[in-house]
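Q: Glycolipid-binding domain-containing protein, please. Structure only.
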Amino acid sequence: MPRGRYSLHDPHDHTPLAEEHFHCAPGPSGWRYVSQVTTPSGDHSGSVDLTLDELGRPIRLELHAAGWQVRGAALDGVTWVRTDPTGAEAAEGNVPAHAFTGTSPAFLIATARLLRLTPSASATRVRLVTFTDPVLAPRTVDQSWALLKSEAHATDNGPLPVDEYQVTALDTGEQHAVHIAGDVVLAAPGIELEDLESPPSAFA
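A: Structure for Glycolipid-binding domain-containing protein:
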């Protein structure tokens, strides 16, 4: 069960935004990721709880940020309920999309798991619902994912397979690289893996 810490920063000017303390593991249902998010000064600012089924579909999502809460799952596309900080109002949403995304590295693992790309395959288009910080406002985005290469890197615990993806935002054409090993993001725009207590889990 990998445990560790990501630092999140603005990908353009590198302003520190948050730290995400996480643990994740494959399980009977598929894969689960749980994290607590803190500000750069160490104050608690939110949490992420994501469970995927064995096909990579989100069967349970719970996000908290700035008093806002989102609960969602893959149902007729993706469906969610967003609750305001007072708890007085809850708005339900549904979009014919494949999965969720957001600032957490968990969503990069989830999308890669859902698509199951191979280096020889052409880029695959995917529609996702993202929840923007800090109020978890939903927005639908279209991306294209391609697996450029998969290489084994030598470590103290033996070879570590690392996948390099190219992700394209289809509304702007902006491209960026995402490096993933098992169920851990090694590097991506705005994301740095700062600490990892145990090796990434390998998906079957």
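A: Brief note, in case it's useful. The chain has a mean pLDDT of 94.
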